[in-house]
Amino acid sequence: DIVLTQSPGTLSLSPGERATLSCRASQSVNSNYLAWYQQKPGQAPRLLIFGASSRATGIPDRFSGSESGTDFTLTINRLEPEDFAVYYCQHYGGSWPFGQGTRVEIK
Amino acid sequence: EVQLVQSGAELKKPGESLKISCKGSGYIFPNNWVAWVRQMPGKGLEWMGLIYPGDSDTRYSPSFQGQVTISADKSINTAFLQWSSLKASDTAMYYCARTQSNSFDAFDIWGQGTMVTVSS
After folding, report:
1. Residue B82 φ/ψ, nearest 5 degrees
2. Which among A47, A90, A97 has CB closest to B108?
3. All residues at 6 or more sequence positions from B22 whose CB lies less than 8 Å from its CB, including other chains
4. Which phi-psi region, left, alpha or beta, contains residue B29 (left: φ > 0; alpha: ψ -120 to 50)?
C-alpha cells in the first residue's frame, strides 16, 4: 500500500511569507493522481490541487503544486490570514490514502 | 448548487447499530463515486471506502473492510455508512465526499460531516 509522509508536521510563518509543504510517497505513484486539501477548524476539507499541479475551481493562484519523482510539493505564495490551516496530500487511483497533515500556523 | 448533506450528530452506546446518510443534489448522483472519510478527534483524515451509486461497486480501505458497510440508494440520491456493533473507538467525525468524475479521482465536494459519539 502507498504511504504518504508529509513534512514538516508544523510550519510557523508570518502573513506574506511563502509556505513550502512536502509530501513523499513510499513508492512510485502516478503524479496524475495526487491531490492537496485544506482543512480549517470545524470545517470539512476543501480540494485545492489535483493531478499534482492543477488548481481546483475557485482556488487562488497563490496556491501551486509540483512534483519530482516521488516527492510532491504544495507552495503557498504570500500567505494570507485565511491560509493558516492544516493541509493534507492524498493519492487516488484505486486506494485513497492521505498523508498525516501539515499544520501551517501563525508565527 | 452541487452539495452533499449529511444526517445529524449521533450519540450511541457501545454495541448499538447505526446508519448515517449523505444526500447528493445539484448533479447526477449515480455518476460520481461517493467516499466516506473518518476523522478522529484531533487527528487526520482516513479514507474508509467508496461506492459508485450507479452500480453499487464498492471499494473498502483494508483498515475498514469488515468493520463498516457502505451502501447507496440511487433512487433517493443517498449514500450510507453503517455499523452493526459500535465501539467507543468509532467516536469520530465522518465525512462523505464525491469524486470529481466518474472514475477514480480527487474529492471535490464534501458533506458537512456527521459527528458520531459512542459512550456508555
Report:
1. -135, 150
2. A47
3. B4, B5, B6, B7, B34, B36, B78, B79, B80, B81, B96, B111
4. alpha
Mean pLDDT (chain B) is: 97
Closest CA of chain B from A65, distance in Å: 14
DSSP label at residue A93: S
CA A47 to CA A20: how far, in whole Å? 17
Q: Write down the pLDDT at residue A94.
A: 87
Query: Rounded to a whole number, what is the distance in Å from the CA of A60 to chain B's nearest CA?
Result: 16
Instruction: Name the nearest CA neighbour of A9 among B15, B20, B44.
Output: B44
Q: Give the residue from chain A lying closest to B110, CA to CA.
A: A44
pLDDT tens by residue, B22-69: 999 999 999 999 999 999 999 999 999 999 999 999 999 999 999 999
